[in-house]
Amino acid sequence: MLPAPSLSPKELVNDDVNLMSETNMTTSPVATGGSPAIAEPPREKLTKKAITADHPTWCPGCGDFAVLAAFYKVLEKRQLEHEKIVTLAGIGCSSRFPYFVNGHGAHYIHGRAVPLASGISLARPDLHVFLFGGDGDGFSIGGNHLDHGARKNINMTYFIMDNFVYGLTKKQTSPTSPIGFKSKTDPAGAIDQPVNPMKKLIAGGATFIARTHASNVNHMIQMIERAFDHQGFSVIECLSECVEFFPDVFDPANPKKGGSFEVIQEKKWDGTPEDELRHDVTDELAAYKLASLPFPGVFGVFYQSDRPTKNALEKKWIETTREKTGGASDLEILQKTFDRIK
Ligand SMILES: Cc1ncc(C[n+]2csc(CCOP(=O)(O)OP(=O)(O)O)c2C)c(N)n1
Ligand code: SF4
Ligand SMILES: [Mg+2]
After folding, report:
1. Distance of CA 37 from the midpoint of ligand 3 (Å)
2. Confidence (pTM)
3. If you placed Cys at 140, which of 174, 175, 250, 260 could pair as Cys (CB 3.0 to 4.6 Å)?
4. Where are the alpha helices (DSSP H) in the chain?
């Protein structure tokens, strides 16, 4: 999906040589004590144009447009290396996201984006793995994968666009649909207790858990940036309206529609009496209490912990194994293992 480089490898090398002679650097193998150092060519600025792919195919007014706009803003603001951006998704309207981002990506199997993202994150820890999807994809068919990604604390940023309905398949009850919601699967109104995303994520062991609303782009940007900066399994639930099949459901949290958007006040640890009342994001029980507030609840960071990631633990284990095997190659280790079990 990435555009082809505008310079051929030969031109790049020539450019490097010019750059080095201008800056008085040397490429001599003797001077560097080995192979010649190749300087990186100067990077082009990452612009919205560069990261924009297809025109989104969502219904006009769908909340997911604002999510995409917020994501573009974060990529531009952070100037991530273009070739390291990966967007992944399952299936659903929201899961069409990777089509609209010019980067590596996949629109994968319904509910199975977390395992795909886990493999990519563990194999290529240098990549920025972003995952997008809906409430059905994340909490229903993919609910079990969500729990395991969370407990293993695999490094990725997962953005769940929660519209309380299955949008793509035209209005079935989703795991977050409220009791009484009339849909094609519940014509008399939903009778099942909905999933509480924050509680599920706290119990599952996710190490960064936040909540936002697609009508508040600035807040979305803040949450994406904080989730991105977090090392581990970071999840944001975003209320994103399906104007087609569940319109106006998030108005109570939208000041432009007469609602109120209440932001979590986080502790500043400044010793003031006001701080006593503020939320400690490392306190699981306090996060659980916030998650129990009646709809529309509060927005911001519910929980964050610095538990080691599976990426870090696996890296350590690989390094120890390498040491033990005297630096044997992967193939040699594999061959020895096969020999042992023959
Ligand atoms: C294995 C499998 N089961 C069911 C479907 C049908 N299906 C496609 S998307 C979807 C639900 C999408 O809902 P959600 O994840 O909330 O995304 P939205 O469309 O609301 O953004 C379902 C049931 C499928 N594609 N694959
Ligand atoms: S059906 Fe709903 S969720 Fe899907 S694109 Fe349309 S408004 Fe968005
Ligand atoms: Mg949905």
Report:
1. 50
2. 0.88
3. 175
4. 9-22, 29-32, 48-51, 64-78, 113-123, 135, 143-152, 197-204, 217-229, 273-277, 284-291, 310-324, 330-341
